[in-house]
Structures are given as structure tokens and as C-alpha cells.
Amino acid sequence: MVKIASYGTWASPITAEQAAAAGPDWVDLYGADVWWTETRPGEGGRVALMRKPDGGDAREVLDSRWSVRNRLHEYGSRSWVVLHDRVVFTNWADQRVYQVSWDGGEPEPITPVPQREHGWRFGDLVAGPDGQVWCVRETVTGERPTDIRRELVALAGGQVRVLGASHHFMSGPKISPDGRHAAWIGWDHPAMPWDAAHLCVAPVLDDGTFGAHRVVAGGPTEAVCQAEWEDSAALLVLTDPDGWWNLHRVGIDGTTRNLAPCELELGGPLWRMGCRWFTPLGSGRFAVLRSGAQLAILDERSGTVTDVDTDLTAWRPDLIAADGVLYAAAGSASLPTAVVSLDLSRGEVTTYTPQEAPFDPQLLPEPAERMVGAVPAYVYPPSNPDFAAPEGEKPPYVVFVHGGPTARYTPTLNLDFAYLTSRGIGVVAVNYGGSTGYGRAFRESLREQWGVVDVDDCAAVALALAQEGLADPARLAIMGGSAGGWTSAASITSTSVYACATILYPVLDLAGWTHQGGEVHDMESRYVEGLVGAWPDERDRYAERSPINNVHRLAGPVLVMQGLEDKICPPEQADRFVALLAGKGIPYAYLTFAGEQHGFRKAENQRTALEAQLSFYGQVFGFTPPGVPVLELQS
Questions:
Q1: DSSP codes, 287-304
Q2: Residues 285, 625: Cα–Cα separation, whole Å
Q3: Average of pLDDT values for 522-541?
């Protein structure tokens, strides 16, 4: 029998512990064996390396001492590569590179011990010639977080040999089929990789190093995001000279042809090196990801891009194919992301990791995609088959702001959302101006407007839900992490739309988050110049928009959560912000997590963060969620 109870007080079988689920990443194929990594929140956030032999069961290659992860550009990259007799990987604890046989055993290091902790970081590992591994090496050259030098290197015989360098930031180099050329992606400050990134090609010299490189694609307003050798004379390249990431054939002589011109994004932002948004299928056909996640087939003969009809609607940029079978990590709004293969001729899906809906599907709200003006959003209404609200009561809603900000929200099975919606709290995820998947013009609508466009777009969506009677206008919240934490903080200090805000590992002080301010890592140290304006020329704008300077304008209580080892958004900013809250008379809570970096990887911290949010919303919105520890608020 359906019980009548106020929104927020519904009982739910979805616990915070269950929301901290393992997830696969970096799927690859070697011969008939499928490989991937798997994040383990229950093991302190360790990243395990998995192998499923052809005809055998999946097994972990390394024991619990090893976490296959690296710090390249601080967001990490493809962290392992399979060779014919071994697998080579980066280890999180010391950032050294190791090798081990396919069947496991004791790994042995193949890079030296640095003079300082994490003084060398290796990333985007790819197979080079003669059993070598080619990759990017970062060298820490000083005490500031921006004191980093990068080089393309070869690992072989226990030696690290420099191959060359072209830009301040680079992807791992890939060798041509005839071994005569290498290709890689590079970019320099102040551009970010989605602003301007070049495809470089250089001859491989007799000594194995690289000669002078030439730029064959990319430019000041064009960004290459993936390149693969098609043959020794041409590469297949995702780039956007016409404002959309389309697939091109680029000759090493610089000739270029768009294989299927379309106003669709078939690529994505290079936050992590090693992503594959496309893979060749043969006969002029390619598997591609439209808008970052929807699987489609590009046929260069007809110049078309056609969606693949499958229950899996959210594919990770891990695409790899062999003999008409596609491999990747994929899921949907109701199916967990799993390692899968799809036989494209038969439409048969095989799963290699669990992909069963973990709860009654009625507990998992089906997101409704909608447009509020020009702003895309996904609405997750409250959903629980055992409960209904009293007649006339409208639900509270949380506006979810994705990070980046040059990123997007893709509707996948989100147990954090389901934890709230199954208890009677709606969630709406907003792809505000600046999000990816909608072309360069939409992406660049945030240029010099960070803290304005994102704030306005999120507010417009929240107010639209309230005006339509779908949400209680007095019980609106905003939450997000990283850049989403920035927008949440900027919103609660510049508008009166929200009753409260949850702010996770945020940017709060723009002046500090500059190269000169010293509270930002190298990759993003000049990002804010495009998002806000030239520094220090626009110093007043930086000060005006920074939430840390607007604490006196807080519209309601805030919950701030921060990892203490975060190198991307360091805790110093959150510390200063919270210190300013004391004595202001507005309730707040500040939770810090030792051992966590940018985002919470440990199961116990994910649980604490989720339960804290629910208790926080209950205290602000006037309900008592059952079975949740009470978060202590200060003022």
C-alpha cells in the first residue's frame, strides 16, 4: 500500500553505502583478451587492473598493493599498455612505471626513483617500436605547482630516453605503421586543449628520437582531440575547424578531408589523455560517439552519422573494435556502466562486469531531457513506488552543476541522484552555456562570463521548474563539485533563487586560482583568463565575482566539503571561505577528508558526503530524513 508522507521523509532501500559502487574505465583489447581498470571505493579508491582472457574468467592482474593511476596534468591519463609479453603500468603511490607478466607476479620498476616525491610523473602510455613504451613525462622543476616540464620519452631496458617535445602540454606519441613518423597532440598556455590544440607529425630519426615536427591540423581556433594512424601517409583525426568536432582524414602533407560534415560533436574535451571517441570498423565505417556518449556509425561513403539502436545510451570514450565487435564501457540511466562488447552485425551485447539494475526500476527515475530557452537540462523527479506526497505539496529540488566547466552532464545510472529522488527530493542536471556536446559556439558562450552565464542558466532552469509547479520555489538548492562548486558558491552569493548550497572541492577565490596566485595546478593555471578575462588587467572583475569576497551576500546556509590532498582546487580556498562564515549568523558545515584528492574516492567518505547532504537539506527545508546521522551546523 502506498504511504502518504512529505517529500524528503520517504524511506528508501538505496543506501549511501550502495551508492559507492565500483566503476570500469580505460577499456582496451589485445588479441582476443579484454583489459580494463576498475575503481574500488571499498579499497580506499584503489584502481585495479583487470584482464579477461579469451574463453576465461576476468581476473585481477595485480594485488591490493597496486593502484594503476597517474597524475599527468593532475587529471590522469591512460595508465597502462599491453605488450606481447607483459603489461606496463603507472603506480599511484610513487608515480613510477612498472612492468609485470600478463598472468601477474611481482611487478618490477622500469623508471628510476625521483629525487622528490612524485617528481616524475608518466602518462598516456602507448606501444612504441621494438618493445618500447612511449609516453609523456612530467618533471617537477620547483616548489610552485606550475613548475613542471614535459617531454615525450621512450621507456626501454630500464632507461628513460627523451624523444622530443613540441608544446608545454602533449599527448603520448603514436608511431606510424611503417615506423617512419610519430604523431601527437600539443597545446600551449593560455589556450586550453579545447580552445587550440595542434596535431604534430615528426620523422623518427635513425637514433630513434624525433626530428623537427610539423603541425598538420589544429590552430588558434581549432582543437584536435583524437588522432589515430590510418596508414603510413594519413591519420584519422577528430578536430573542429568548422565549429564541431568531426572526423577528418589528414595526410602527413597536411591535406584534409571531413569524412561526414555535420553539426554534431563527435569528440570531447581533453581533460584526460588517451580517450577514444572513435574507432575504425573497416570499409569506410567508424564507430563514433555523438555528443560525447551516444553510439553511432559514421559512413564516409554516404557522409552520414547514424545512431545505433541499443539499450546502452551512455558510452565512455574507450571505443576499440575487432572483427565487427565493438568494446567499451557503457551503461544507461537504468543500467550501471559495465565493460561490454557489441556485435554490430547481430546487435548482441556481451557484458564482462555486472550490469544488473541494482534496485526496483521504479526507484530509478527516468530523466526527462528538456530545453529551458537555449539551456539543456535533465530532470529527475522524485520516484518511489511505496510513497506519495500529500496532495498539493510540491517537492524540493536540487540543481546539479557539472564540473569542468568545459564538460557536460550525461544521463547515466546515478545512484547519488537516486539516493535523493527515492526519498522525495528532485534533481535537475543543467548543461549550462560553456558545456560541451553542443558545438564550439555554445562552448565559448562562457568566455569571460564564468560566474555569470553558468549562474544565470542554472537559475533559469530552477525557476522554470518552480513556475511550472514541478518544484517548491521555497525549497530549491544548488550543488556541485570543482567548477560546479564554484557555480554553486557564486549562485548562493549572487542570487536569491536558492535556499541553500552544497559546495564540493570548489574554486572560491579567482585571484588565488591564477599562475601568480599559486593556488592552481599547471594545466589550469591560465584557464581562468579565458573564463573571466586577462589577469591582472581585469583584477576588479576577478574580485567582484569571487564568492570569497561575497560572503556577506549569502542567501542561505552552505555545506562545504573538501579533500585535504586536492592539488586542483586546494583546501586553502575552502579554509578561508569557511573562516569568513563564522559569526555571520548563517548556518554552515565544513567537512574535510584526509587522504582525498579532487573528488572523493573512498567508500566511507562517499557515504559521509551523501548522508551529510541529505541531513543538510532536511534541516534547511524542514523535514527529518529517517535513518540518517544529523549533520551538525554552525553559525
A1: EEEETTTEEEEEETTTTE
A2: 52
A3: 97
